[in-house]
Amino acid sequence: MNILGFILQKEFRQIFRDKSILAMMFVMPMVQLVILPLAMDFDVKAVSLAVIDHDHSSYSHQLINKIGSSGYFKPIHFASSYRKGLQYIQREEADIVIEIPPRFERTLIRDGTEKLGISADAINGTKAGIGSAYLTKVIADFNADLDINVQSEEALLNKPIEIAERSWYNPLALYKFNVVPAVLVLLLTLIGGFMTALNIVKEKEIGTIEQINVTPIKKWQFILGKLIPFWIIGMFIFTVGLMVSSFMYGIYPQGSLLLLYAFASIYLIALLGFGLLISTYSDNQVQAMFVAFFFMMIFMLMSGFFTSTDSMPNWARTLSNLTPVTHFVKVVRMVILKSSNFEDVKMEFIYLIGFAVLLNGWAMWNYKKTN
Amino acid sequence: MKQLLVFIRKEFYHVFRDRRTLLIMFGLPVVQIILFGFALSSEVKNVHIAVVDYANDVVSQRLIDKIKTSEYLIVEKTTMGYEGIEDEFKKGEIKSALIIPPNFGNDLYSSENIKVQIVTDGSDPNISKTVVNYLTTIINAYQQDILPKKTFPYRIIPEIRMLYNEEGSGSLNFIPGVMALILMIVCTALTSVSVVKEKEMGTMEILLVSPFKPIFVLIAKAIPYLLLSLANFTLILLLAVFLLHVEIKGNIGLLYLESILFIITCLSLGLLISNVTNSQQTALLISLMGMMLPTLIFTGFIMPLENMPKVFQGISHIVPSRWYYTIVKAVMLKGLGFSYIWKETLILFCMTIGLLSIAWKNFKIRL
What is the ipTM of this complex? Predict the structure, then answer.
């Protein structure tokens, strides 16, 4: 045990000596915690339009006014031809082009129906879908308001079913409630994954690992010596993160803090094992960093951090379930926002323990003391 | 000139000797573009919901059947009561519940106020908002279906066309984004260690005492990475076209020229990082860990930039991948010509010049 104490002392000194890395380790997570919740807002608020009015009649003006005052669309550009309207889309200044055909009002009164051309920039599918749904709704309202309809008796339509909507745990449907817990996970992931991966491979590259190999240190002592400091730093950062989330964003953990910490510590052990594993397979820091980066991207993009895992194809969901991050993101969101208890997240707990054992075991098995 | 060529050859040897790094450099982007190209989409699909049916009549049953046929929603449970919702939310089994009141069927035909309630798990606002939209659409369509048709005598009928993406592929937006992200991170990170590695290993001194202009050192370091990155880009493009079936609508020559420009921008950034850092570890942490998130956020392919606070929108202007993303979208997906992207090109060009000159200025010819 005494040997482990000495190793820990050495590791801590090494970590605290390099001021730039220390700064990155502490400052970057905080920057992320501040930036991400402010930046992540998926709401489709302002859809911009380009309107081409070939008719210039009283109805076409009313329609444009109605669209403009609906509050969904901003800004509205006017164009003289479809080609010019399309240019707004091409320059990304508009998301949707509306073309009011010539003799719009006359056709409407004569035939009872008239078509209205709507072209949406569908590269961003969400915006195109929601934007055109808004437009359809405004047009339906406009149809109901048309003075020739109001005068007719047939216009008495069925009242639509009233839909009362209630959003639990987040009544105002703010995105920060979704983002802040996930950022807490991100903090632990970055510390656990990147830092250990780099740390051990650096000893390899510089050659100091040879010296450790010839000393009478046991394998487990060396590995624990590498893991414990980062585990402590990780838990410290997690605590700071929780405080920032409570005091800055007003997102207090609703569930048990103990449960949250239990999960965080096991998750961190799993991730540290992962970093260790990367470093046992890499020859140099560039390799270790790239592999760590590669997995980090997969973790971030596929763990349900940004996009919902439910929407993924089956194989991708399976893959997503094979990463520890997915489970931890789920748990942190559940415990912090919904006060889920241990019974609710039991399976995730088993998963994470499994990951911790598997990754660390594999790493230790692959770390050869004589190389 | 001959000197430079010899030097470039030396750098190539260095790069090619490290097979594993090379494998990683080419292998990882390939896996990533396939993975993200297929898996990511901003669409919300397969959302598990529950229906609490207090009416339990033919009308409510048919409504539930209707919801079951939706490809976006999966009806998980229909038997539980209102009290059960909270438990299901806490277990994360369902994201939303539709509550149909008793007498729903009778009310629908007779009364004026027909109410249903949707309770959503607000911990993911994106999903809960979308589910409410889906359910609203289904419920309204259902009401139209079962009640005698009444339409306005005078109607404007919207005809909606989806430009550039008729099939409604959810991943189309992500492909140029992932391209920009991968090129940006890989190019920057690789070059970021180039100079600092020599510093760390001590070979820098040898380079500096050689009769060789310092600027050539930088050029010689950048060129192998430029060619490799270009090969990498070609690979990514081939994957996008043949595997992900993205059609290149615009001029491929233009796409290449723009990509070369973007790669040079990233290489310059990498060189700058390499010049101002003292260890590979710091250089890598800055270029990979430090830039991953800003690039991911400020390129604009995951989160809409226009929703961000003004300060962040300002910051996004200095992220090169943001401009490149716009260029790739315009050329590759929309088939537009240079006249539409000259502004973005000019910005990237100025960034490159700026980064290169700062990198050069910070390149110490004495240790």
Answer: 0.83
In chain A, the N- to C-terminal Cα span, in Å, equals 25
Q: What is the side-by-side strand order in the sheet with B115-121?
A: A162-168, B115-121, B96-100, B47-53, B73-77
Asked if the Cβ–Cβ distance from A63 to B156 is below 8 Å, we say yes
The pTM (predicted TM-score) of the whole model is: 0.86
Chain B contact for A331, CB < 8 A?
Answer: no
Q: In this complex, which of B156, B163, B193 lies closest to A108 when CB atoms are compared?
A: B156
Reported as a single tens digit per residue, the pLDDT across B282-333 is 888 888 877 888 888 899 888 888 888 899 999 999 999 999 999 999 999 9
- Reading phi first (left if > 0) and then psi (alpha if -120 to 50, else beta), residue B44 is in beta
User: How many Å apart are CA A49 and CA B280, to the nearest integer?
Assistant: 49
The terminus-to-terminus CA distance of chain B in angstroms comes to 26
**Chain B residue numbers touching A139 (CB-CB < 8 A):** 156, 158
At residue A133's C-alpha, the angle toward residues A166 and A117, to 5°, is 170
Give the tens place of pLDDT for each residue, A204-248. Answer: 877 787 777 777 778 788 888 888 999 999 999 999 999 999 998
For B45, the closest of A28, A44, A311 (CB atoms) is: A311
Helical packing angle, B342-362 and B214-238, nearest 10°: 140
For chain B, say whether A135 makes contact (Cβ under 8 Å). Answer: yes
Which residue on chain B is closest to A27 by alpha carbon?
B290
A1-60 residue pLDDT tens: 688 888 888 888 888 887 877 777 788 778 888 888 888 877 777 789 999 999 999 999
What the block records as the tokens of A112 is 């009872």
Do the Cβ atoms of A148 and B154 come within 8 Å? Answer: yes
pLDDT in tens, B137-158: 898 888 878 776 666 778 888 8
Q: Which amino acid is at A76?
A: I
* C-alpha–C-alpha distance, residues A46 and A96, integer Å: 11
Flag whether residue A334 sits within 8 Å of chain B, measured between CB atoms.
yes
